[in-house]
Amino acid sequence: MDHGIPPSGESSHSAAACPRDYGNLVWLHSCSCRSRFSSFHLTRRSILTDVHDQAITIALQDLCLHPEYLEPLRQDIDNHYLDFEHTAQGLPLLDSFIKESARLTPTEACMPPFLFVLFVTRLTNITRQTVSTRRYAVESHTFSDGTRLIRGDWACTPLIAINKIPEYYPNPEQFSRFRFAPPEVLESRSKIDQEGLAKQDTPSKLVDTDHKWLMFGTGKQACPGRFYAAAAAKVIMSQMISKYDMRMVDKTAKRWWSLRSTIVLREDLMVAFTCRAKN
Ligand code: HEM
Fold first, then answer.
1. How far is the CA of 103 from the centre of ligand 1 (A)?
2. Looking at ligand 1, which residue's alpha carbon is closest to its atom 21?
3. What one-character-per-residue DSSP string does 78-134 give?
4. Which residue CA neighbors atom 25 of ligand 1 most closely?
């Protein structure tokens, strides 16, 4: 059965660092390179979770809205894809781009359907924004800062609010492509690439977890699939970036709608892919 998993064994390394063709993406190619983003959601055939392909789709949309990042990302992929393919580590600019995209547009955490039903029926007092890591208070509890939860309350992580705290993220409203990249990687870039960048005090990766970065949850229950999720996102993004130019057909079109505290991508958003000429 074809799950869209990269073929094992043979490798076309002679084609420089160019990522290989995997089933799902070839399908996009055969669609005259003009596709609805919903077509990219081939989750029935793929090994990605919904939240995962949402995160990748959002990153690709952000790339359409910021096409000036394509060239630096292509260079990153040209220079480091082979190492990444062997180690599942690296591609620091792409890692930072995906993280910045997820910072400003976090999607939903993994949530089993029964919990979702519980959630929509019980959760009434929460603001309309993306929340994650929901916890149901089975007994009343007072935290060290005095915050009190009554039995039956829900406690959640307000992702968007946290991701926009200026002390955590300088110029938090700015989409600052490579803010998480290590300084030595940025220093090797041209001045133009570095202009106007908001930078973090310390570099970090998409898969890191701490009190500032809760995309994958926190503590003992942090997402165990995040290493796979990040690696697969980089494989897919590298394919798209290397092989296609892309643009949003209508840049002003709405990208998502809200279902209670969840962001759901719109399926009618059109993106045009154009094959890049082969060298
Ligand atoms: C971008 C993609 C993903 C995001 C944003 C994400 C996010 C999360 C978050 C926030 C949690 C913690 C939920 C909580 O504490 O209430 C979580 C848990 C979990 N995730 Fe993911 N996840 C992603 C992909 C994946 C993938 C690809 C897998 C499996 C291959 C996976 C497997 C799991 C499992 C098993 C848990 C439960 C861990 C536990 O309760 O101990 N996730 N995920």
1. 16
2. 223
3. HHHHHHHHHHS---HHHHHHHHHHHHHS--PPP--HHHHHHHHHH--S--SS-EEEE
4. 225
The whole domain housing 128 covers 23-275
Q: What is the pLDDT of residue 191?
A: 59
Q: Is 55 in the pocket of ligand 1 (CB under 6 A)?
A: yes
Please work out whether the CB of residue 221 comes within 6 Å of at least one atom of ligand 1: yes
Q: Does 4 reside within a domain?
A: no
Can you tell me which atom of ligand 1 is nearest the CA of 228?
27
Q: Tokens 């600052």 correspond to what residue? A: 176
Q: Is the CB of 133 under 6 A from ligand 1?
A: yes
Spatial contact of 248 and 271, defined as CB atoms under 8 Å apart: yes
Contact 88, 27 (CB under 8 A): no
Q: Is 43 in the pocket of ligand 1 (CB under 6 A)?
A: no
In a domain, 136, yes or no: yes
CATH number of the domain at 112, please: 1.10.630.10
The reply to whether ligand 1 has any atom less than 6 angstroms from the CB of 216 is yes
What ipTM does the predicted assembly reach? 0.98
Give yes or no for residue 168 CB within 6 A of ligand 1.
no
Mean pLDDT by 10 residues, the chain (279 residues): 33 35 33 31 39 81 90 91 90 94 77 39 43 85 91 87 92 89 78 65 91 90 92 93 90 81 80 80
* Domain tally, the chain: 1
Given ligand 1 and candidates 57, 110, 133, which is best to mutate, with the most ligand atoms within 8 Å of its CB? Answer: 110
CA proximity to 244, closest of 28, 75, 37 = 28
What's the maximum distance between 2 C-alpha atoms anywhere in the chain? 65
- Check residue 45 and give its pLDDT: 35
Residue 232: its pLDDT value, please?
92
